[in-house]
Amino acid sequence: MTRLMTLLATAAAFATPLHAQEITEFRIGLLGGENAQDRMASNECLRGYAEEALGVPVRLFTPADYNGVIQGLLGGSLDMAWLGASAYAAVYVADENAIEPVLVKTNLDGSYTYHSIGFARADSGITSVADMEGKTFAFADPNSTSGFLIPNVELPAEGYSMAEGEYFSRIGFSGGHEQSIIAVVNGDYDAGVTWADGQGAWEDGYNSGALRKAADSGIVDMNDIVEIWKSSPIPEGPVVLRQALPDDVKQTMIDLVAGLHEADPECAYGVAAGETAGFTPVTHEEYQTIIDIRRAEMN
């Protein structure tokens, strides 16, 4: 039996006829940061597996920004998503009973952290944030952990003001990680931040993350950009499920995603944004620090 057949057999074991009675469809939200077409393509295999396992139609949703997924989870129009830690904190702060974290992407070394990566064009002469005075800087999305929350905390702590015009001449939101990469490569901003696991080779875009996805798709040649800053380790965001879902539906999806890396490595590569060790269980406690930071930023 192939690994794919094993995955589907395992998922089908949890797919009882009750699913059709309890849910009529299953909706997966795909966080922004990559263009909608690529997000859909990367997750189509997961959609197909979930549809077969659950026995109901499964739909993918690609809102224009992070808030679209956040509001979908809060409003109950989405059942599942892979969130960044800050987006998870945003949902939790708004409604503690809306979702539950169930799985987290792990790196090849078994860790489940990643980094906010500052980057600039290689021909810009910028090699560190110290070279950025009077230059333009791109964040990704206000609800992005690596694309806003963490650099917005750590860079001021390092002495770089986030007040526009005080150190950087202009600060803006590109709309997502892919958009930030494109904006810097095209010269619309002098530098920006995105996310990566920080493992493996820079030339590959590291092992996983937005840089890896952009390099794989040909959006950027990693030789054309340089790293100018790296944050402290950030807890990888969780795969979350709507709390109100039936328990057997939750378990089916947990088992499906947890077994994806072993059963279908190519599918797992697309879903997890690169080379990883798959998804493992995670709890709410892992995100308390990010929740505290998020609440502090609101005050």
UniProtKB/TrEMBL annotation:
Keyword set includes Acyltransferase: no
Membrane-spanning ranges: none
Lineage: Bacteria, Pseudomonadati, Pseudomonadota, Alphaproteobacteria, Rhodobacterales
SUPFAM superfamilies cross-referenced by the UniProt entry: Periplasmic binding protein-like II
Gene3D superfamilies listed in its UniProt record: Periplasmic binding protein-like II
InterPro entries registered for this protein in UniProt: PhnD (IPR005770), Phosphnate-bd (IPR017797)
Protein name: Phosphonate ABC transporter substrate-binding protein
First and last residue of the signal peptide: 1-20
Gene Ontology CC terms: ATP-binding cassette (ABC) transporter complex
Keyword line: Signal
Record-stated family: Belongs to the phosphate/phosphite/phosphonate binding protein family.
Native source organism of the sequence: Paracoccus liaowanqingii
Gene expressing this chain: phnD
Pfam families associated with the record: Phosphonate-bd
Any single GO BP term: organic phosphonate transport
